[in-house]
Amino acid sequence: MAEELSQYPEVFEATHRGYLELAGTTIPCAVLKNSKRIISQTGIFTAFERPRKGEKRQEGLPSIIGAKNLLPYVTDELKETCRAIHYFHSNGKISVGYDAILIPLICNLYLDADEADPRMLVSSQEKLVYRARILVRALAKVGITALIDEATGYQYDREINALQKLLAAYIAEEFLPWTSRFPKQYYQEIFRLYGWEYDPLSLARTPFIGKFTNDYVYNEMSSEVLEELKKVNPIIESGKRRRKHHQHLTQEIGIPHLQQHLTKLITVMQLSDGIEDFKDNFQRVFRKINQLKLNLDEQ
Predict the structure, then answer these.
(1) Where are the domains of the chain?
(2) Which of 51, 166, 244, 277 has the smallest set of CB atoms within 10 Å of its CB?
(3) How many CA atoms lie within 13 A of 244 on its CB side?
(4) Is the whole-model pTM more than 0.85?
């Protein structure tokens, strides 16, 4: 074993091992002799329900946070925490992991990026924002519980795995099925109609796309809906909105209405040769639909 340990600059001894049940996933974890809490190297991808990719996009960063559009939100603390830690068990096997605090740090990165400008994120990253929001809220609730247990000494009397059961309950409270409401095809068609080169990571066109969405999506659902969405989802200090408008639509009525509208809208976009052709087709199709609804209401 001594010869194997010599291959690494520093290897720590794990005094405790176990498995963390986190939001429907199982993550190997350990506590080292120096009291540092560790999650396995693959566990960081498991926690966010993302398959591990062998190729790193940025040196020293896991691929889960190595995309170009996320780099402005990578802090020095996060870079330091991304350093792999080698440790060995009583059986002599050497494993690789990260400081467990990496999970909330990655959550913070995605939440910061979403708050700064949610339109800069691609669909796969939006799923991670949703996952991060669930994890942060649940971990915060468990954290205050653990602190009180430690302060009062109750940590020695509570049943084994009590905190994990509490975490599972809190995550169940937060969880709602995530779906990408605006498909990539919607954005690709906008860029095609205006003759722009499609780049999902570019921020140059995002204010215009927001206006396009208001004009041809939310206004068509009804001007009252858009005004109400602006009230419940106001612009914050950063000059952006904290959430996407569709996150405030109801599952029973608002979301199905949005999806039906997008299906028709994307079809009209695909049949149009350019933006002026689209505007004509949009008026022809949607004004006809609205007039039909009005005639039916009058009968």
Answers:
(1) 2-174, 184-298
(2) 51
(3) 20
(4) no
